[in-house]
Amino acid sequence: MITQSYLTDLTYRINGACIEVHKILGPGLLENVYHQCLEEEFQLRSIDFKSQLKIPVIYKGKEMNCEFFCDFLVEDLIIVELKSVSQLNEIHRAQILNYINLMKKPKGILVNFNVKNLYHQGQETFVSKYYDMLF
Predict the structure, then answer these.
(1) Angle at 108 between CA 88 and CA 103, to 5 degrees
(2) Which residues pair with 110 in a beta bridge?
(3) Which strand (E) or helix (H) includes residue 98?
(4) What is the pLDDT of residue 1?
(5) What is the pTM of this model?
(6) Radius of gyration over every alpha carbon of the chain, rounded to an integer in angstroms
(7) Which of 8, 35, 41, 47 has the fewest Cβ atoms nearer than 10 Å?
(8) What is the rounded distance in angstroms from the CA atom of residue 23 to the CA atom of residue 96?
(9) How many CB atoms lie within 10 A of CB 62?
(10) What's the confidence (pLDDT) of residue 67?
(11) What is the band of 120 on the pLDDT scale with cuts at 50, 70, 90?
């Protein structure tokens, strides 16, 4: 059974992988570089993930043929969205919230690699109503 505590532990593991990538590469690279390196770090840490997963968009009961992808879905529970921007904006936060709601996942992590300190400045965590259903 998936619990809030399990999701918290998984979030720490994901953040640790992101911090490792950032520690080695630093800020200032393209998002795609961080994406590829994070794939490798997840594999090294035995974190189960899907990369560039298509997000289904259902409109009035019909699935739309949209090319809409999230960066990572970790253990079918947490969506991880990567950025490499000067600062996170509300549109980035809206994007991750839409992803977790469209995919009916309990948690999402927004990571911006273009910062000096990833832990303090570069990651935000979001929960959905599905998180509140867990114990």
Answers:
(1) 120
(2) 81, 124
(3) helix 90-102
(4) 83
(5) 0.94
(6) 15
(7) 8
(8) 24
(9) 8
(10) 85
(11) very high
